[in-house]
Each structure stands twice: as structure tokens, then as C-alpha cells.
């Protein structure tokens, strides 16, 4: 395991399916601490630590989805020798999807399932919520989503630490264009909050066109960061999707 890219928040499970979790824009591996602990009895959970945050804060964050996914695919590639799955939330859903595409193009074993959370399907043009130019627009969007507390956003020193990653991530999303590539071969489960202010249910359902495997849409109560309050429900969805009858989903 590449200690640069991955963090564990529960005991390693060498005999379990490995779940690699990709955080949201501006987010860090610690965003998956509750879910990791909830899943630790069933899966070996690795949370991705992007450059430019927490213990990697001195590294330059990626300003391109393509470049970021290239690096992530390289980091994940050694893990594909054993059963694995991917889970991405918000921007992390984009990166999980693009990482899976790159692994498939390289001929690597595919994931048992990809879980895409809090994100609509990709399109040729970025959505209005990704086209944010100024720091003020970015901060207004972050406040509206509720994923970053006022303790950070209202503290000038803490805000100065997180803004480079936020600028890079939103810049990458604003420049991202779907290239019309082949759908994934593996099953996909999409999760979305029923009160998400930036992802409509029909936008989440459009992921159906991006897999040639099975498709499952789960709508949970809550907003964009529904999974902070619905950890047990998400745990059950993930474990059912991966471990039903002890067979690959």
C-alpha cells in the first residue's frame, strides 16, 4: 500500500474486499473516518489523501481532473491484484469513475463495484455549480453545501490553509469535460441525498448510461453531505452491494 496516497482508520483486513474512498472537493481522507469505522468489520477501507491537504498540505494540489486521475490510477493499480471496490463522494465520484476508466484501459482487473455519491453523471459541459471563479463564489458554495464548518471558514488562518486545495479542486471541476468514452464494465451504485441542493435525482440517475454492468440508485434523506448523518445506511448499502451471498456483486 502506498502510504503517500492512502490512510486507514480501522484495523487492516487482509482477507476482506478492499474499498478505496475518494473525498469531495477540498476534502481530505479524514472525511471518511466515520464510514471507515462503520465498515471496518466487513471491509478493508482505504481513504485517499489528495495532495495539498492535511499531512500533504505542502504538496501542490492537482488543478486537472485528468492529471489527478492519472496519478490515482497509478496509486491504485497495485491494489487491483486482490478484490477491490471504489467509493467516491462529490468530486471524489468523478475521480473514482475516471480512475476506474484508466485501470480498465490499462487492462487491470476491474472493481467489484463502483459507488458514486453526491454527483450527477458527467456531461460535455460543466454544471453551473462547478463554474466558480472567485474565492467568494467558492466559499459561498462551500457554505451552502455544509461540508465545512464555520470553525474553518471563519478562521483566517485555517481558511488560508484550505483555500489552495479548494481553488484547485473547483478549477479542475470547472475545466472537466466528458469525452464520451466507453462505459464501465462493473456494476455501479449511485447514492444521492433527496435534498441535495446541487445534484438532482435525475442527474444522479443519468449515471445509468455510464455502466454496462448492473445499476442501482439509492436516494437517502439529507443534503449534499447526507452520508455524515446516514453512515449506517451507507454501510448497509455498501456491504450488501459487495458481500451479498459471499459473491462478487
UniProtKB/TrEMBL annotation:
InterPro entries, per database record: AB_hydrolase_fold (IPR029058), TEII (IPR012223), TesA-like (IPR020802), Thioesterase (IPR001031)
Keywords: Hydrolase
Residue span, Thioesterase TesA-like domain: 20-242
Gene3D superfamilies listed in its UniProt record: alpha/beta hydrolase
Tagged with keyword Cell membrane: no
Name of one Pfam family that matches: Thioesterase
Top-level taxon: Bacteria
A GO molecular-function descriptor: hydrolase activity
Keyword Lipoprotein recorded: no
Family of this protein: Belongs to the thioesterase family.
Protein name per the record: Alpha/beta fold hydrolase
